[in-house]
Write a structure and sequence with these properties.
- By secondary structure, the protein is an alpha/beta fold.
- The protein has two domains: 309 residues, Up-down Bundle (ABC transporter transmembrane region fold); 137 residues, Rossmann fold.
- 72% of the residues lie in helices and 6% in strands.
- Strand 1 and strand 2 form a beta hairpin.
- The protein is elongated, with a radius of gyration of 33 Å.
- 27% of the residues are buried.
């Protein structure tokens, strides 16, 4: 699981160690400054305490720099591991590939959401751990120097704030899911902008504008609603967190009004106490965001959850239901043949599938791909498969010819599956490409579905 590998990675562990060292150095500065003030109150001056105090303020920058480096490394490593896991799970998941709605949603997540959510989640973990260490160490220093009882009032404030945090969890989860769904739908719509805007087909563009209007309203409404809720909860939690500690501090100051040394140390430590309460507020705010973070990371991790994928038998069964062999004509080297040849393909030759739209020609090719897996190369009519050629510089026909030539020179699998390669080609281009396929069929078993079959 990606989460467990994140927490056990060397980079994550080294990050925590560096954070701990940094916070211990920062926390120790409170001890050195109060010792220095105590000496000065007794008309003593210790140069070494002053030097150590200055050193404790400067030294945290060193582990701080390494923390930023490790944090960046952790984000990159985790994003790479996610994509590696995706590449492990999805090969030959044919039915998922045919589902256009699922494809759009998952492409939106993989191409943008996943990396952003993983980065945000790691930043979130870093902020939680950093704030927690700061609060624990700073609170220990304040308790040692000022009064141990202050810890009780601090935790009383924490308890009151946590009570608010628990009460809001259900509503926060609901709002987080709504906001994320709106964002995914918005990102899916953005993927359609290029064709619809640049081609300027009025009908399609008007549909895009309608969707844009509707989804932008939802996106804005759900995002703002979530943020408003966050801010209301945050203000309530901050007030309840700080109130008990400040009341007790005022009480202590009244009791020790004549103790100038204690007052001097307390005044010096007030910024540290405010900082502790600020980090505590930040920590509670982060905890209030836990439902949203869980929703986001769960959505991403669901993509690499093996249980969400169909079993091979289920995929084959569903694909078989799409194939109507009675409506598909098969020919081998231009001679009509029995469909049973599909069960055991020859080592070479050209098998052509013909049939009306909806007869299941593509599904039959995908069944063959499913059966032979890595031993078959499937070339759809529209695709983003990677080849050596720069396909942007060629027409559809030229691109198809160059891809087939590359396949002929480089491919080592025995079966080639060509899905409606002749769509949108003129008769001359069809003849030229058909000739190339004839050459390929001498070395490979080529199974093709034809849009418009012509004799060549």
């Amino acid at each position: 699981m990606l989460k467990s590998s994140l927490f056990t990675s060397k980079t994550f562990i080294s990050l925590i160690c560096l954070l701990l060292i940094q916070q211990l150095i920062v926390g120790s500065s409170s001890i050195w400054i109060t010792q220095l003030i105590a000496n000065l109150s007794n008309s003593q001056y210790a140069l070494y305490l002053f030097a150590i105090y200055i050193f404790s303020l400067l030294l945290p920058y060193v582990p701080g720099a390494y923390i930023i480096i490790q944090l960046t490394k952790l984000k990159v490593e985790t994003s790479i591991k996610f994509m590696q896991k995706f590449m492990e799970l999805y090969p030959n998941q044919i039915l998922h590939w045919t589902n256009s709605d699922e494809q759009n949603k998952k492409i939106a997540i993989v191409s943008g959401e996943a990396s952003n959510i993983i980065t945000d989640y790691i930043d979130y973990l870093y902020q939680v751990i950093s704030a927690s260490l700061n609060v624990i160490i700073s609170l220990a220093m304040v308790a040692i120097i000022i009064d141990y009882t202050i810890v009780f009032f601090y935790f009383l404030g924490m308890f009151l704030s946590l009570f608010i945090l628990i009460l809001q969890k259900k509503n926060k989860t609901f709002l987080s899911i709504a906001a994320q769904e709106s964002r995914i739908k918005w990102n899916s719509l953005l993927l359609k902008f290029w064709d619809n805007v640049l081609l300027n087909n009025i009908y399609s563009l008007s549909k895009l504008k309608d969707n844009f209007s509707h989804k932008s309203i939802d996106f804005t409404k759900n995002s703002v609603k979530l943020e408003k809720f966050n801010q209301i909860i945050s203000i309530s939690m901050a007030f309840l967190l700080m109130l008990p500690t400040f009341i007790y501090l005022i009480f202590l100051a009244y009791q020790k009004v004549n103790d100038s040394a204690w007052l001097a140390m307390t005044i010096v430590l007030l910024p540290r106490l405010f900082q502790t309460l600020s980090y505590s507020y930040e920590l509670l705010f982060l905890f209030s965001n836990l439902p949203m973070q869980n929703v986001n990371i769960t959505t991403v991790l669901s993509l690499i959850n093996k249980s969400s994928l169909l079993k091979e038998e289920e995929e084959i069964s569903l694909l078989e239901k799409r194939v109507n062999l009675e409506k598909i004509t098969l020919s081998f080297n231009k001679e009509k043949i029995n469909p049973e040849i599909i069960e055991k393909l020859p080592t070479s030759g050209r098998i052509t599938l013909q049939g009306d739209n909806g007869s299941g020609k593509t599904s039959l090719l995908l069944l063959i791909k499913k059966k032979y897996n890595e031993s078959a190369f499937y070339l759809p009519s529209k695709h983003d498969l990677l080849f050596m050629i720069n396909s942007h510089n060629f027409s559809t026909g030229e691109k198809a010819k160059k891809i087939l030539h590359e396949i002929k020179e480089s491919l080592e699998v025995p079966i080639i599956l060509l899905d409606e390669w002749d769509a949108n080609l003129d008769i001359n281009a069809k003849r030229e490409i058909s000739s190339i396929i004839d050459e390929l069929s001498k070395k490979y078993c080529v199974v093709e579905s034809r849009h418009n079959f012509i004799e060549t």
